[in-house]
Amino acid sequence: MTVIIDEIKSKIAEGNLLTAIQTALDHFKSVDSSIYDKLIIISSKYKELENDKIKGIIPYAEDEIRRNSIKDNLLNLIAELDKDFSELEKYKKEKVGKIELFDDDAIFIGVHGVHGHELVKVKISSILYIKAESGCSLIFLENGKKRVITKTLKSVEEILPKRKFLRINRSFIVSTKKIQKISRGYVVIEGVEIALLGKMRQELLKEIKRI
Known about the structure:
Blueprint: H1 2-13, H2 17-28, H3 33-55, H4 60-92, E1 99-103, E2 106-113, E3 116-123, E4 127-133, E5 136-141, E6 146-149, H5 153-159, E7 165-167, E8 172-175, E9 181-182, E10 186-189, E11 192-195, H6 198-210
Antiparallel strand pairs: 1-2, 2-3, 4-5, 4-8, 5-6, 7-8, 9-10, 10-11
Helix pairs in contact: 1-2, 1-4, 2-3, 3-4
C-alpha cells in the first residue's frame, strides 16, 4: 500500500490532481468504505470545478483557491492513510499480528475503524476465499464484506487450517467447503470463477473427498 500512497503523492506534486484522485479511487475502494466515501466527495468537487472552468463562470483566483483546497483535502486523506498503514506494519511485529489464529474457527484481523485501528474477530467458516493484492491480502466473506490485511498470501496460508483452505494458484486461497463447482480450469465460489492450476486440481479433489 505504501507504494500506491507514494505514487499518489508523486502525481499530486507533479500537478496531476485528476490522475491522483483516480488512482486513489481505484486502489482504496476495497480497503475502507469511509475512506472511499471521502475520495468520492473529493472527486465530485474536482469535477464541479472543471465544469465551472469550462463554463467560464469562475475567475482565475477562485479557481486556484478551490483547486488548492481539493489538493489539500486529498493530501490530508493520503497522510491519514499513510499513518494508518505505518501503524499496521508496526502491528505485524507484535504478538497479536495482523491476522492470528484465535480458536478453531476464528481469527483476529486488523482493520481501519472510526476510532483508528481495531482488531476484528472473523469466523474462519465465513471466509470464501483470499486474494493477493499489491503485497497485501483481500479476504472475501460470506456476508459480501471484504477485509484487507497487510500480510502476503503465503503468510495467510501458513495461519489458516490446512484441511479447510487450499492455495489453487499464485493469487488465490479458497475455502474447500465453499466451492460450488469444479471445472478443469477453474472453481466457482459465490458465482466467482477462480483459476485452478492443473497440478492443484488433483490436490483439490483429494481434499473434497475428505469433506
